[in-house]
Design goal:
Helices cover about 85% and strands about 0% of the residues. It has about 70 residues and is an all-alpha fold. It has one domain. Helix 1 packs antiparallel against helix 2. The longest helix is centred in the middle third of the chain and has 54 residues. The mean pLDDT is about 85.
């Protein structure tokens, strides 16, 4: 191989590695976003369930339950 051909192949390998790192970071960002959205949904559903349980039990002051959760 000539020297120029070796330089071209070396640059291609470096670019491929950079592309893999970018794709990995994008995947990590998506995974973290999904975890954050999931935690938000879990908290919201928990609050709504507690208030619904309070209302179904016949209580009238269910605001106290909601403030106790937060």
């Amino acid at each position: 191989m000539t020297r120029i051909a070796r330089l071209i192949f070396a640059e291609d390998g470096e670019q491929d590695e950079a592309d893999r790192q970018t794709a990995s970071l994008a995947g990590l960002a998506v995974a973290l976003l999904l975890v954050a959205v999931g935690l938000f949904l879990i908290r919201t559903l928990h609050e709504k369930t507690a208030v619904e349980d309070c209302l179904l039990a016949g209580s009238r002051n269910c605001d106290a339950v909601l403030t106790a959760i937060r």
